[in-house]
Each structure stands twice: as C-alpha cells, then as structure tokens.
Amino acid sequence: MVGFTKSAITLTAVLSVFGSAVAVPAPKEVDYASLIQTGPGLPTIAELGLTNADLTKPMPAELDPVLAARDALEKRYNPQCWGEPKCNINDARACFNYLNNLGGTACSVTGRVQMCKMGGCAWDARTLNNGFASSSCSNAALGGAWILNNCNGGGRTAGSNAAFGNGNLVVDIIGR
Predict the structure, then answer these.
(1) Which sign does the torsion angle of CA 42, 44, 49, 55 carry?
(2) Residues of the signal sequence (predicted)?
(3) For the chain, what is the domain count?
(4) Which domain holds residue 133?
(5) Angle, helix 63-72 to helix 137-150, in steps of 10 degrees
(6) DSSP 43-84
(7) 132 within a domain of the structure (yes/no)
(8) Over its length of 176 residues, how does the chain's per-residue pLDDT go in tens digits?
(9) pTM score, two decimals?
(10) Would you give the distance in Å from CA 163 to the centre of its chain?
C-alpha cells in the first residue's frame, strides 16, 4: 500500500508539472482602438476619445424596435445577406460602434468609399446611381445593424442594406 501511495503521489506531481508546461496562455485582447482604420474625412478613434470598451460593447437593445419599425416602412432597397468572403462579427461590431458614435457627422459618398475597416472587415458606403449621397453616420450604422442582426452565422457576417432613412446610400459589410 505504501508503494502504491508513493507511486500515486509521484504520478500526480509529474502530471501537474506536465500540465503547467502545456498550459495555453489566454488569448490576447484585440486593441480595436488602435487598429480601426477610419474613412477619409471622418474623425479618428483618438479624436473621438473612444476606448476598447466603447468599440466592443454589444449593440443596444433599443435598436431592435427601431430596426423593426424600419422594416415595416416601404423600402427603396432590399437588404441582402452575402456568402463568402465574410468578416468577423466582432470586427464588424467595432465599426458599427465607431460609426454610431459619430452621430450626426455626415457619411458622404460619390460612387463608393470605405467608412471603416477593422481586421478583415470593411464597411463601405456606395450610391445606387453612382452620384452623390449623404446620411448621418449613425444612420449608416443603423443600416449595417440590420446586417449584423440578420446575416450572421458562426461568428461571421456579410451583407448589404440602405442607410436608415436613405435608400440611395447603401452600406456593404464585406470581408477583405
């Protein structure tokens, strides 16, 4: 019995040393505040004073009724979910939070422009007629919110929707 106890203690010690040797470090938190690329003419993350906490927060629950009411209105653009390439939902959410925090700042476009890019995820704005269109950046973010809510699976998303209240300014969330 003494031999068995010594063997069990030795085995436990060896396994605990082995276990600590192969322990995997925790994944490093993404520094969205320093990695987001903002669109031309738009304020930077630093200028807005946004932090990682601001950029990674979940979409506000109060958006659900706003998005539902919008869906009930007559649409001039039919939103779409796309296949590959898709982008990481957390990267897409960081761009949503950035654009939403711009509030009434104008997101204007002639043709096509990238409003925000994080990692392999880009939020582009484009016009339907290749002319000029402008919406508040928070309304562009609301257009993208539909994509985040409806075009996600496996932590990835891609799609297209008009900015809230402007069927001529289209928001595309695409993987790049």
Answers:
(1) positive
(2) 1-23
(3) 1
(4) 32-175
(5) 90
(6) PPHHHHT--HHHHHSPPPTTHHHHHHHHHHSPPSS--EE--S
(7) yes
(8) 545 444 444 434 433 433 444 444 445 678 889 899 999 999 999 999 999 999 998 877 766 555 555 554 546 789 999 988 899 999 999 999 999 999 999 999 999 999 999 999 999 999 988 889 999 999 999 999 999 999 988 899 999 999 998 888 999 999 98
(9) 0.78
(10) 16
Domain assignment present for residue 145? The answer is yes
Locus of tokens 């096509």: 112
Distance linking the first and last C-alpha atoms of the chain: 64
Any domain includes 99? yes
Rounded CA separation 163/148 (Å):
14
Confirm if 33 and 44 have CB atoms less than 8 A apart. no
Cα separation of 31 and 146, whole Å? Answer: 25
Q: Which two tokens stand for residue 75?
A: 């649409």
